[in-house]
Backbone:
């Protein structure tokens, strides 16, 4: 990029505007051709292509060049309190949009050998409220509603009639830690077939015994590794890990994998996204 | 074109005197990218450290051994969710700036000023001797000395690594090959952290040199022109 103003002394335009550069230029040319005259105050060191610029022109050029980086000031919008929140929300929304596009339904999360499992007792118990919301297993059901052909209350035994899958997958928490756990259960996609869900709907939402709530995009819900999980480490889920039923989604961050499920709904409209999402966390957060 | 050197002259009546020389060192795209990057790097590091505070360890969750309790006052976002918003917003600015910068350098040919090449090797020792062992100052012939080129070339590489390690942490499943290259999600997170410190080490050295080299040098990153260059 050649700053057009570097050679104003050679351009007719500048010469027409001001006599200064013209005079300067003539002088300089004389001096250089005469090869150093000690009597003169003009001392020219070797410069590229013998260019000169008057001091006034240089100030002008400098200001103009400085203005060229003024788009930088746009970032100042982030410093304005009233704009900051909506800008960050837009940024996060853009990241979620990109995440949804990066998600590939046929791409499986890495699975691990049994020897790589985090020991069960070192698998963290995470909840926002209580470890055990006191679910009564006797009369527990999963209440299904929304865009489904067969709504109603589903017992755990009904879910267990679906093919059981077990997988050793990585569980990543938004805080930054990760563990490798062994999970077992029915594919959510099989359950969605069982209830006659409208697979073209956009979301699957779940409610939990501890009033936690979550939502999933349909693409992730139909991913082959997305489980309605009722086993960990080949044993029935313990209460603090979400008994009797939780989500296990190796392609999602931990907080989307809700525990102590009580309700499941197929819907196109989200009034609420999820417990953490509604406080400002990423809505999609696919891994 | 960067590298242009011009004489500034002042005319008083019939007399014209030279009042110094200026060199054009930084095209507008480079300057804009420099400052965009300075700001987005600041936000990325600040929010990254706040994210790190949520689990300031690289070991197991149980039992958790904290590596470093970074003070909240030197972090951006206030809480994990807020920091993630800053991080996931400014990462786009950081990445876009990097792409524009690299594309510009490549297509304009301006990269020759920055890129460390084998030709610069012989000049490394003299400048190291000058900086660290009170050796004589080597002759300055271009905007950047060999050590500078080395530093800038390295930090550009680190910038690319910061993005790649970041993608591996953000999307360890979709970009499983990247995460795999770094030893999986767990290690990718550590690499991401280490690359940040390497960049911060550069920034520290960079700021020291900016202060040592004074105002004219600093202004050149604003206007492109450096007064009284040494070459």
Residues:
């Amino acid at each position: 990029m050649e700053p057009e103003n570097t050679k104003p002394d050679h351009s007719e335009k500048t010469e027409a505007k001001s006599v200064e550069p013209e005079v300067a230029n003539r002088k300089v040319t004389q001096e250089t051709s005469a090869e150093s005259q000690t009597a003169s105050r003009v001392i020219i060191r070797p410069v590229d292509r013998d260019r000169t610029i008057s001091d006034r022109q240089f100030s002008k050029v400098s200001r103009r060049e400085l203005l060229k980086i003024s788009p930088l000031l746009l970032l100042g919008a982030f410093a304005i309190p009233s704009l900051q929140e909506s800008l960050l929300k837009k940024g996060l929304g853009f990241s979620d949009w990109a995440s949804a596009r990066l998600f590939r339904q046929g791409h499986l999360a890495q699975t691990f050998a049994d020897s790589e499992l985090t020991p069960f007792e070192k698998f963290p118990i995470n909840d926002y409220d209580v470890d055990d919301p006191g679910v009564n297993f006797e009369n527990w059901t999963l209440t299904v509603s929304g865009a489904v052909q067969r709504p109603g209350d589903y017992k755990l035994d009904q879910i267990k009639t679906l093919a059981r899958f077990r997988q050793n997958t990585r569980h990543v928490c938004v805080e930054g830690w990760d563990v490798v756990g062994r999970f077992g259960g029915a594919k959510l996609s099989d359950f969605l077939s069982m209830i006659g869900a409208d697979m073209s709907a956009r979301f699957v939402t779940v409610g939990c015994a501890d009033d936690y709530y979550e939502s999933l995009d349909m693409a992730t819900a139909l991913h082959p590794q997305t489980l309605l999980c009722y086993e960990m480490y080949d044993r029935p889920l313990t209460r603090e890990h979400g008994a009797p039923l939780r989500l296990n989604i190796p392609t999602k961050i931990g907080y989307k994998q809700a525990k102590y499920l009580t309700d499941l709904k197929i819907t196109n409209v989200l009034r609420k996204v999820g417990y953490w999402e509604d406080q400002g966390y990423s809505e999609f957060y696919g891994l | 074109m960067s590298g242009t050197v011009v004489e500034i002259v002042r005319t008083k009546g019939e007399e014209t005197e030279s009042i110094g020389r200026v060199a054009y060192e930084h095209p507008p795209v480079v300057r804009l990218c420099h400052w965009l990057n300075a700001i987005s790097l600041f936000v990325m590091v600040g929010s990254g450290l706040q994210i790190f505070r949520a689990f300031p360890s690289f070991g197991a969750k149980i039992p958790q051994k904290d590596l470093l309790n970074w003070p909240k006052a030197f972090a951006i976002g206030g809480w994990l969710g807020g920091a993630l918003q800053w991080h996931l917003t400014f990462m786009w600015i950081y990445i876009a700036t990097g792409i524009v910068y690299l594309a510009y350098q490549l297509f304009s040919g301006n990269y020759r000023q920055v890129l460390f090449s084998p030709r610069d090797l012989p000049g490394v020792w003299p400048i190291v001797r000058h900086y660290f062992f009170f050796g004589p100052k080597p002759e300055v012939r271009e905007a950047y000395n060999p050590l500078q080129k080395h530093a800038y070339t390295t930090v550009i590489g680190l910038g690319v690594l910061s993005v790649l390690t970041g993608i591996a942490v953000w999307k360890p499943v979709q970009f499983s090959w990247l995460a795999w290259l770094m030893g999986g999600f767990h290690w990718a997170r550590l690499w991401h952290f280490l690359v940040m410190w390497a960049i911060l080490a550069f920034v520290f050295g960079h700021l020291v040199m900016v202060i040592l080299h004074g105002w004219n040098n600093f202004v050149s990153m604003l206007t492109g022109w450096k007064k009284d260059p040494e070459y």
